[in-house]
From TrEMBL:
Gene Ontology terms for molecular function: transaminase activity
Span of domain Aminotransferase class V: 123-405
Pfam families: Aminotran_5
Domain of life: Bacteria
InterPro entries per UniProt: Aminotrans_V_dom, PyrdxlP-dep_Trfase, PyrdxlP-dep_Trfase_major, PyrdxlP-dep_Trfase_small, TAT_signal
PANTHER family in the cross-refs: BLR1280 PROTEIN (PTHR43092:SF6), L-CYSTEINE DESULFHYDRASE (PTHR43092)
Protein name: Aminotransferase class V
Lineage of the species this protein comes from: Bacteria, Pseudomonadati, Gemmatimonadota, Gemmatimonadia, Gemmatimonadales
Keyword Ribonucleoprotein: no
This protein's UniProt keywords: Aminotransferase, Pyridoxal phosphate, Transferase
Amino acid sequence: MLPRSRHPLSRRAFVGRAAGALGTTLGTAVVADFGTPRRRAIAAAADRLRHGAPADAADDEQFWREVRAAFTVAPSIVNLDNGNVSPSPRVVTESLVRHLEMEQDAPVLVRDMLGPGTANLARELAALLGCAPEEVAVTRNATEALHTVLLGYDLRPGDEVLTTTHDYWAMQNALDQRAARDGIVVKRVAVPVPAASMEQLRETIEGGMTPRTRLVLVSQPVNLTGQFFPVKQICEMAHARGADVVVDGAQGFAHVDFKIADLGCDYYAASLHKWLMAPIGTGLLYGRRDKLAKVWPLLPTAPAAPKDVAWKFMDIGTRSMAPFVAIGDAMHFHETLGAARKEARLRFLTRTWADRLAKVPKVRFSTSFASPEMSCGLASFSLDGVDDDALQRFLRDRLGILVQSIRYDRASFRGVRVTPNVYTSPADLDAFCDAVERVAAKGLPPSGRS
Ligand SMILES: Cc1ncc(COP(=O)(O)O)c(C=O)c1O
């Protein structure tokens, strides 16, 4: 029989093992993961690029081949639907599985370990965002984070919340419910497609403001078109009129390189399972320290608990902590790639397919390419005379190419959304463009034939 301290379920042995794993992903000792050969290869490749400008790395295919090898994507699939949910690099999946197994060893002990671990995670996310750890809550997705603000923000009957026709449907539902239940007024301004300039977008939002506007909801980029908004200018305008701003950054976080100070918003929410490539079921909520007390948690904390810390939103009962732990691995992977380098690559990939399809007369873009800051790795188009759903189905069912057909009652357009990611190769984009050009020239094949 093993001595008690060496038994796999002894508290000392278990805690030692858990501490090692949590230290790797949540604490300061991140170097252990660099020991994996793949991480080391990418770190070495990134090191080779460290003296160049991020944009110089955008088309360095040798580097991006190393990055692709860190994923387990099936070679038979061309996944251009990463704006939906992105696959994680292998190092993240391995961490997720490792921690799930650990939870099966002794769930209660794992839970005991996670108090300090979660605080470390908030600290690392805060560093990425450029804010204080007390301003960050880890959530299960962007919907949970945004609903916390939209449903928990102090509002009275007749108070107005301003948003756009392009904001995400789940947030519109939250506002509509609040209108029905609490008598608030929801105002929506129509977004021009494609937008002519950032200034036009700022004016569009300003046009919907009234003396009763208390809160503005705006997407950093819109999920339908990839249209970025001039968030900083919108915040300045809203603040001057006494309104707070909540930013839907589900599609912005770890996609473009920014800090919270660049936005100047009061609340910010993101999915981490999109561009950060963390496990499915992870998100975050940022609240400016002096604005946190205005938001009631959806799941209440003790009456005496502090009101000005984002952690008050994390008392949601029992859940698996394994996905949360693996967020740390996703952050380290992101930092190894380099946020600016990744943004430059995503921009390059979009330009590659969009420039090629721009030569096809039937192609119409709903994304604005008028200036670089208006879009990045997410863009939409439609093909005259071709149904978007049918095009999506054809690409997926006949060619294994994944894109997203976009339909949304409130928005003024339909189209197909294309979102490559850091593991996307030029050959993937060629396969996609070849297929669209063929459909533009010959139409979709009758169903049942290829
Ligand atoms: C702009 C935008 N907001 C919110 C969401 C919801 O994100 P989640 O699924 O993480 O709740 C999405 C998801 O696609 C989105 O694109």
